[in-house]
């Protein structure tokens, strides 16, 4: 099996001839790289030994494709101040203007410094907008799909109604409103759900003949300790269950991206019926073992992850190799698991220890992963 076939077999919970292994959005392609970077990994010399090891070991690659949305209702202004990029978005509503400000320091993720909704009257402004759906542009995703070929899978992101609403607020204020004004938040999510439904149907029409892996990452915002499981059950599960059903009926596979502690909401993913959950994190960042998740999933949902990204920056020689050996020993003969790191590399240039440990990860997986 080539890397793509291995990964698809694992997601579909079919037998495999070795433990599937993949990078997490780390790849040599010139398009679709991580949004926090200013250039592809192949243009940073420090990452070349890692890319060489991935190629030599025939490790799979999971690549997140950029999906752009035409924001007809939003005016965008961009500024550069030294190493800082500033993006200002303005929304004209029948009841007044809404403004959002994001900042990003070079080679760092974006950070919201001013949300659209800062007070209750801003909610009234947002609700005065007509329900419209921006059309996604999949041209970059298709280009990346053709470039990766059989070396792995391309992730095609779709919006999550819960996180779309959360992004309008500062998160602390949003979390409080989820507890105290649940009906209001649900009204906002219902509006966003209708837009996501329209967008997904458009994406299905545009991706006929492509085996993209549809994924969303919003549900991780509703996991403990940020919000209680009851909120996840009410504001994530019913909406994602409907969206995942749409994805499956269109002939695609679905994934939910969820860092952190998932023990108390693990059964909710089984209700949602997504094909795969990633990136499963070991304790202490996570709160559930790989064995327990495999037992609880019972072949109903596949899992990906368990090589903690932070460990690659801190582990001594041989430690990652031993972690890989133990994982391969645990999952050998089982179905529904893909080994991967839990995050995309983010430092430019990468530390020497990280490079050494990443190479150790892919080489050990190739050695121990044969069934």
Note the main attributes of this structure.
single chain, 371 residues, alpha/beta, TIM Barrel, four-stranded antiparallel sheet, 14 helices, 14 strands, 40% helix
Instruction: Note the overall shape.
Output: globular
Query: What fraction of the residues are assigned to beta strands by DSSP?
Result: 15-25%
Oligomeric description of these chains: single chain
Report the span from N to C terminus. Answer: 13 Å
> Which residues sit in consecutive blocks of at least 5 with pLDDT less than 50?
none
Strand arrangement within the widest β-sheet reads 1-2-9-10-11-12-13-14
From the coordinates shown, what is the CATH architecture of the largest domain?
Alpha-Beta Barrel
Helix content: 40-55%
Rounded radius of gyration (Å): 21 Å
Look at the structure and give the CATH class of the largest domain.
Alpha Beta
* Secondary-structure-derived class: alpha/beta
Query: Number of domains in the coordinates?
Result: 2
The count of DSSP E runs of length 2 or more, i.e. the number of strands, is: 14
Give a short overview:
The protein is α/β, with parallel strands linked by helices. It contains 14 helices and 14 strands. 40% of the residues lie in helices and 21% in strands.
């Amino acid at each position: 099996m080539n890397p793509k076939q291995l990964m698809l077999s694992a997601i579909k919970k079919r037998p495999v001839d070795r433990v599937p292994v993949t990078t997490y959005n780390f790849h040599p392609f010139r398009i679709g790289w991580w949004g926090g970077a200013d250039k592809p990994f192949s243009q940073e010399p420090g990452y070349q030994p890692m890319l060489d090891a991935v190629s030599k070991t025939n490790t799979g690659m999971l690549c997140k494709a950029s999906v752009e949305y035409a924001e007809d209702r939003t005016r965008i202004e961009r500024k550069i101040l030294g190493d800082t990029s500033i993006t200002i978005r303005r929304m004209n509503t029948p009841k007044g203007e809404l403004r959002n400000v994001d900042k990003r320091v070079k080679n760092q993720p974006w950070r919201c410094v001013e949300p659209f909704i800062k007070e209750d009257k801003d909610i009234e402004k947002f609700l005065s907008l007509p329900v419209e759906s921006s059309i996604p542009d999949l041209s970059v995703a298709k280009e990346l799909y053709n470039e990766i070929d059989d070396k792995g899978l391309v992730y095609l992101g779709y919006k999550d109604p819960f996180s779309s609403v959360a992004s309008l607020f500062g998160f602390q204020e949003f979390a409080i409103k989820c507890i105290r004004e649940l009906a209001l938040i649900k009204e906002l999510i219902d509006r966003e759900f209708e837009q996501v439904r329209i967008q997904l149907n458009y994406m299905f029409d545009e991706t006929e003949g492509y085996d993209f892996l549809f994924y969303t990452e919003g549900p991780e915002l509703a996991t403990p300790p940020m919000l209680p499981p009851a909120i996840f059950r009410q504001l994530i599960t019913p909406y994602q269950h409907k969206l995942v059903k749409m994805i499956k009926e269109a002939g695609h596979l679905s994934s939910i991206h969820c860092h952190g502690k998932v023990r108390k909401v693990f059964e909710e993913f089984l209700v949602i019926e997504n094909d795969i959950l990633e990136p499963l994190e070991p304790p202490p960042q996570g709160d559930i073992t790989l064995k327990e998740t495999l037992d609880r999933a019972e072949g109903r949902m596949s899992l990906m992850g368990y090589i903690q990204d932070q460990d690659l920056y801190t582990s001594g020689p041989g430690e990652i190799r031993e972690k890989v050996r133990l994982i391969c020993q645990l999952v050998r003969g089982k179905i529904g698991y893909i080994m991967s790191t839990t995050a995309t590399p983010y430092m430019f240039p990468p530390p020497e220890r990280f490079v050494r440990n990443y190479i150790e990860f892919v080489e050990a997986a190739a050695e121990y992963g044969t069934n």
